[in-house]
Amino acid sequence: MKLDQATILKLAEYLENCELNAQDTPKITDDHPEMDWEDAYAIQDEIKRRKIARGTKIVGLKCGLTSYAKMKQMGVDSPCFGFVTDYGSISDGGEVKCSELIHPKVEPEIAFITKKALKGPGCHIGAVLAATDFVMPGIEVIDSRYRDFKFDLKSVIADNTSASRFVVGGNAIPADQVDLRTLGVILEKNGEIVGLAAGAAVLGHPAAAVAALANHLGARGEEIPAGTLILSGGVTEAVAVKPGDHVNLRVQHLGSVSMKFI
Ligand code: OOG
Ligand code: MG
After folding, report:
1. Tens digits of per-residue pLDDT, 101-154?
2. Nearest atom within ligand 1 for CA of residue 67
3. Which are the contacts of 116, defined by CB distance < 8 A and separation ≥ 6?
4. Do residues 137 and 180 make contact, with C-beta atoms less than 8 angstroms apart?
5. Taking the domains of the chain in order of start, what are their residue ranges?
6. Architecture of the domain defined by 57-261
7. Ligand 1 site, residue 142, Cβ cutoff 6 A
8. 236 Cβ below 6 A of ligand 1
């Protein structure tokens, strides 16, 4: 760790307030270039602690920057991990208030729900599939607190990987009943196709993203508990949305899920 505890607490409070007040900021590494990976996750952990202390429930975990399309769009070269909250959970077909957000974008994702705990190191696709209860389609709304979505990996990890809102729905299908690599994914905005891909866009197999999360947590002495919702990461580039937009995601065999922006 390169930052002292007081700086970690201060940056967590600052970034969380940016989220809660829908206020953007230059990336935090501009003022703290010495920040390391441990500092970045320590800031994210402190944001989580603040939320829990205020009564917020953590309702799932997320993998980010797991597809080449996303890494290329954001100019980074490795995945990151974060969490999603109760107030971020939107019902299928539900509304997202843009006034609460800075510059929202949507991403099509495959969501996993576990039935057994997963713990790294050495977690692999097979272990993930064996521990998965079912998979579902999900749309994640990301809303980086950084001005114009300009960040580096450490800044975005500290900012809970741009997590904001999400919806899951459609059909809950056991993971062994579909080939998650060839699963077709179609993202539509206002009836037009804005993203097209197959599951393999996520690290060759979406379960590899969940394995990477388990290995990341394992290195910190933590695990993915049974019954956890995990967003495995945007399959295509993220697409900007504004009030009035309607977004629908269709995933082969898994049905569809949608949200409206007001
Ligand atoms: C970081 C979050 C990325 C995903 O699915 O790739 C993410 C960002 O692009 O702002 O959630
Ligand atoms: Mg995402």
Report:
1. 999 999 999 999 999 999 999 999 999 999 999 999 999 999 999 999 999 999
2. 6
3. 130, 131, 226
4. no
5. 57-261
6. Alpha-Beta Complex (3.90)
7. yes
8. no
